[in-house]
Specification:
The structure is a homodimer. Chain A is of the alpha/beta class. Helix content of chain A is 40%, strand content 16%.
Chain lengths: 497, 497
């Protein structure tokens, strides 16, 4: 008996052994007769919201089925959607609005039964594709691997069930070359096994630029998008389809020459960002050593248009994309295109970023001394401000280091009540976390709540204590005020410590 | 007898053994009585133009003396200025206009006699500070050194001659920490030796963001600028001075906390740019391997504000700054601040960029085959479009490789008539270079002349030949046209070769 725990409510669901969900699927299709059917494969941070966008498409009324595996981590999402509760917290009111619409229209179902694929006119692939980081040599990433197993089996499941004229649109971030070298052969193999034609299906790649947060929906629906097809016919059909889903009045839709190109664009985009962050890491250490304020320097440089993307110091990179996409790219270069070279700058960026919370810990000890038996409160556990996503959050590494150093820790986050990766609950009332007069407060996520004057007042009301700001959250004025009462250090600022 | 050759006219000057230029200096000061005297130390690509900016200051009438060593490479510039010919070619009409003004006003003199410092109210330091790149291990920069000898002796010369209340404004790009750790002690030592006070002088650092080209003057005069002083009094006086020189109506003037901070800002700025270019190098190779067009991908990504600085493929980095500034930074981190860490991302960027013309050569051979006895014409030798600067131009490495491969080469550049580093003349008439029907034309610099329809017509009139575009110079339309007649390959485009 396997149980799946709802990370929002901590409710427990027993996963059924029988995968037959045909009754629900057939009822759903009956009440959505005449509509084209979109199956979204994967109900994660992209797939779940992409399902809402499809069920609220700009130019067509679709019946949308979200499908995921009935596993420990995902089964509760299927249940939650069908019980009328959207399975993620985000401060974008459109998510609730769009979800309510689907309930009123009855055009969104979640399931785990692969039967759904057999009715799909379009399958949108939003499954995960992970990288296994194996070893570090003196802090640098030495070895990593990409296991395509799960991805291949997801594609095979489509091929085993789909119609021969299905449209498969891959949105998953894949190693460049995957549509041509992996998806196409698997789909065709499965279609041929079933005696079906391999001339009819449509295959393409298009990536979202989803940004969980207050613009979650619009970051999928109204943000410039790149797409490609496995051939000209596919590219044309994908374009026609995307124009029914995405608001192309509000954003550009750019066709690239082939699937290699769009797949490369996605990982290049994220590698670039990862590298920009890694650059800030290196210079943060230098700024601390030289006793200068890197924030002021970055501000002075960002006035140049050519340097407007320069990043500020911080605790590190988290989330699902920047922590692995550069590795997918480098892996593909060698595995699919026979190169002998890594993408060194991109791989090194991941290495540097992975070390960021360790640097933060070292600086903490340097400035505030040892932590044995100290009470430490973390403000924020998610990897980014105003979202509730803890995947690969750098805060986790810092929390572990601080705990190992002998501190007694408390965690606060307004967007995370249960921290799946750590298997612990997280306090959502700030008072509960700071009323006990912690000996050290660590600002670890840039939630806007922490910038509010109420929060500053609460911090000012504490007995003189230590504050370690890992992300440069406070304004100049707020910082001056806090410094008047507490010992404050900001990562990347060598001028105060 | 040492001779200095004018790189513009190839005129030869014999360098005098007697350094006494007091007659000229005294006459100049007599006719500029009552004016504050600015001495600009160094008449290179920054100092020469900075002198013009000072002699045409926005809010004050200064007497400006440009000073440089009477050496092989620089003596001719002193002569040229005093003979009424500005010693560099650039397509900024303001250079000629500003130079004419100084001739009319008689407020700009060039000299080699250190006597000039004794009259200076302000000395602006614009001397070179070089990095010695020592060895590469499998293409990566293994060892380099910073020799402060020349810089220290330039500062000592000021200290040996200056008034005790002189203002010294360092503009040279220095290893962060240099004003505090090098300039200040040397100046004070020399002042004390002469029995003068060390309480009166003013010392600060401010860097220009000069961009040789059509906005040469304005890039110094109307571009945001950062400054700092060795203490609060110095910072205030430097600010007051800069406001008389720079157009602060048109651009921000930002004070940073100390000289470490502004020195760091400068090298950070250039390291960031060097890294962005290195990133494009890595992905250009990948794009070529995967058969896709990196230009299209970059265009598709640059629509995102967070990615607007993403660079295009190219032949490489040249010029005096990006090829060494990241190394200055890394050197300073260890030498002045005791860190055990290099700035790895920054140092690696220089390594990668240094290899760019070698990659270009390898791609050339891959696409066009061997070069033995082939006639090859290079369009452009300077490191950047529409300027005549050949310092560390990547074209030099490519020219050497192509020559070593057995080709017979011709060089064209509208802005360079004599290539100092190669000791050869460069043709400025395009017809002369391409009328001989070269077997390969290499587009090596992005001069606007090459984009003009006349040039495209000339190329179209050649017998079918090979064109290797290392910088993505041509528009889509031009490229299509050229491809109709010639075999064309563009670096970073795997889709055509």
């Amino acid at each position: 008996m396997i149980v799946s725990i709802n990370t929002l409510t901590q409710e427990r669901y027993i996963i059924p052994e029988d995968l037959d969900d045909s009754k629900n699927i057939n009822e759903f299709l009956l009440s959505n007769k005449g509509k084209k059917v979109i199956v979204v494969q994967g109900l994660g941070f992209v797939g779940a919201v992409m399902s809402l966008v499809c069920a609220n498409a700009v130019a067509k009324d679709y019946a949308v089925i979200g499908i995921d595996l009935p596993s420990k981590d995902t089964y509760w999402k299927i249940k939650s959607i069908n019980e009328g509760v959207f399975p993620l917290i985000a401060n974008d009111p459109k998510i609730e609005e769009f979800f309510e619409n689907t309930k009123n229209k009855g055009n969104f179902l979640a399931t785990y039964d692969p039967l759904a694929y057999s009715y799909a006119d379009v399958v949108i692939v939003d499954v995960n594709l992970d990288v296994q980081k194996k070893s570090y040599t003196s802090h640098m990433l030495k070895d990593f691997d990409v296991n395509l197993g799960g991805f291949k089996s997801a594609i095979a499941t489509i091929g085993k069930n789909c119609k021969e004229d299905v449209m498969v649109l891959v949105e998953t971030t894949v190693p460049p070359g995957s549509c041509a070298n992996v998806v196409k052969p698997i789909l065709e193999e499965e279609l041929l096994k079933r005696g079906l034609s391999i001339k009819e299906y449509i295959l393409g790649h298009s990536y979202e630029r989803v940004m969980p947060g207050p613009e979650y929906i619009e970051s999928i629906r109204s943000f410039p998008r790149v797409y490609s097809g496995i051939d000209a016919r596919s590219a044309g059909d994908i374009e026609t389809f995307l124009k029914t889903i995405i608001d192309t009045e509000a954003c550009e839709l750019t066709r690239l020459e082939n699937t290699n190109a769009t797949e490369m664009a996605k990982v290049l985009e994220n590698s670039y960002r990862a590298m920009n962050i890694a650059f800030a890491v290196e210079w943060s250490r230098f700024a601390e050593e030289a006793g200068v304020n890197l924030y002021e320097i970055v501000n002075a440089i960002r006035v140049r248009k050519t340097h407007a993307n320069l990043m500020y110091p911080g605790i590190g990179v988290g989330g699902y994309c920047l922590t692995k996409d550069p590795l997918l790219a480098s892996w593909a270069r060698k595995s699919f295109f026979g190169s002998e070279s890594d993408l060194n700058m991109s791989v090194n960026s991941v290495s540097v970023n992975d070390q960021m919370p360790i640097y933060a810990f070292n600086r903490l000890i340097e400035v505030f001394g040892d932590l044995v038996d100290k009470s430490v409160s973390f403000l924020g556990v998610s990897y980014r401000g105003d979202i509730g996503d803890t995947r690969f959050t750098p805060v986790e590494v810092l929390v572990n280091k601080v705990r190992e150093a002998g501190a007694v820790i408390k965690l606060h986050d307004p967007f995370v009540s249960y921290w799946q990766e750590q298997g612990c609950s997280v306090e959502s009332e700030l008072d509960v976390v700071i009323c006990s007069e912690p000996e050290l407060v660590i600002i670890s996520t840039g939630h806007s709540e922490y910038r509010k004057s109420e929060t500053i007042s609460k911090l000012m009301n504490l007995k003189p204590t230590n504050i370690f700001d890992t992300i440069g959250l406070f304004s100049k004025k707020q910082l001056l005020m806090l410094q008047g009462r507490h010992k404050v250090s900001v990562l990347g600022r060598g001028d105060i410590h």
